[in-house]
Every structure is written in C-alpha cells, then in structure tokens.
Write a structure and sequence with these properties.
Blueprint (H helix, E strand, L loop, with lengths): L25 H4 L11 H31 L4 H38 L2 H6 L9 H15 L1 H30 L16 E3 L6 E6 L5 E5 H20 L1
Antiparallel strand pairs: 1-2, 2-3
Helix pairs in contact: 2-3, 3-6, 6-7
Length: 238
C-alpha cells in the first residue's frame, strides 16, 4: 500500500470525514483527560498508541481504496495486510476500554457494597518502584470520598459505552468467533471483509447475541471514539 497515494478524486462520504478534516490528536492525547486515566502514564501510553496507529491505518485505508479503484479489482495482498493491522488495532482498543470499564465497575461495586475501605487497606504500597499501586490507592480513596469524582467517572463511561459495545462485538466475532455473551452464536465467516467504497476501511460482517447480522468496521470505532471525546469536552465546557 502506498501511504502517499493521491486521493484527489475519491468521493468522500458524509459518513466519514475527509482525511484532511480528521483531528488525529484527539485519540492520541485525550485519553489522559479521563478521570480513571489521569496520572496513569502506562494506561495513557495505551491510549496514545491507539491514536498513533489510527492515523497510520486510516491513511492505509484510503491508499487501499485508491489501489482498488485503479485496478478495478480487489488487491489481495493489500487487503490482507490491512485486515491484519485493523484487527490488531481493534483488539488494542478493546483491551484498553475493557480495563477502563473493569476499573469503573469494580469501584462502583466496592463502594455500593461497603467494601471499598477494606480494598484500600489491603493495598500494599511499600514498594517505591511500584507507582501503579499508589495511584490505584489514591483513585480508590478519591472514589470513596468524592461524589463529584464518582459522578464524573460514570458520566464519562456513559458517553463511550456504545463505542465499547461496537468494539466488543467486533472483537468477539474476529478473535473468539462468537457473539458477545453467547458463544453458541457463531458468525458465518469471522474475519472476512469487504472494502468500504467511501473510505477504504474494511467492512466486517458480525453477528450479535440475538443472531442478527450487521456490518461495521474499524473506522466506525475510531469516529465513535472521536465523537465521544468531542461530546465530553463540550459537556465539560457547558
């Protein structure tokens, strides 16, 4: 794939912004502004990696579309390479968001059950070379004591939950060859994809737990994440 392919005569869809209109920095820097990501440099690095690779893969997608239109047939090698990187990107997004969701759910569970103090007491933070434990202890203490912090975490997750459900659906179909929450529901062709004629991303056919098929792709996840961060910033300003 030619990363510098001419895209001048591609008919960009309103569903997907023109390459020049995408603010790739959103997925590189804004993860660190989330309540449960603040101060966690290692989790922040995961978010930064998602943003950096999104920009690279998005350019590859448009280059694939250019190649596809020029050849008037599917460029097999390019599709296979893009499919591999797209799936790895989706798995990375899923793991980062799954960890975020797990931390939120555990904090809420411990707080609601009255067990948060015990969890905090049991955290051993004597090791000076283990800053992650100290950060976790501070976050748990703040979650216990600060209602605004608790509300902020819940509000932030609510904005991203739909995107998480989409990436979970893709991850389960692509990696587990099953629907989320229902392993007996099996997709027809896990990993098979078609080139999206508007932006070059790969459209995957996935199946949900009710057995319904739908088409979604990596770019839907990326744009969903950007939209959620923009909504979050707007709500914070308001």
């Amino acid at each position: 794939m030619d990363d510098h392919a001419d895209l001048s005569d591609i008919d960009f869809s309103d569903d997907y912004p023109d390459l020049s209109e995408i603010d790739f920095s959103i997925l590189t820097i804004r993860w660190r502004q989330l309540a449960l990501w603040e101060g966690d440099q290692f989790l922040g690095m995961q978010g930064m990696n998602i943003g950096i690779t999104d920009q690279i893969i998005t350019r590859w997608e448009y280059a694939l579309l250019r190649e596809y239109l020029q050849l008037e047939k599917t460029p097999g090698d390019s599709v296979m390479a893009l499919s591999a990187f797209s799936q790895m990107w989706l798995f990375a997004v899923y793991e980062a968001m799954r960890l975020w969701r797990e931390r939120f759910y555990k904090c809420r569970k411990w707080h609601d059950s009255g067990g948060l103090n015990k969890v905090i007491e049991n955290l051993d933070c004597k090791d000076e070379l283990h800053p992650s434990k100290r950060l976790k202890k501070r976050q748990l203490g703040r979650y216990r004591d600060d209602e605004n912090f608790r509300n902020r975490i819940a509000r932030e997750w609510a904005l991203f939950e739909t995107v998480y459900q989409t990436v979970e659906l893709l991850r389960m179909n692509l990696a587990k060859h099953a629907a989320p929450g229902k392993e007996s529901v099996v997709p027809r062709a896990p990993g098979y994809a078609r080139i999206n004629r508007h932006c070059g991303t790969l459209d995957f056919e996935v199946i949900d737990k009710d057995g319904a098929y739908l088409i979604t792709n990596r770019r839907d996840v990326a744009e969903g994440l950007r939209a959620a961060f923009i909504s979050l910033k707007a709500s914070t300003v308001d």
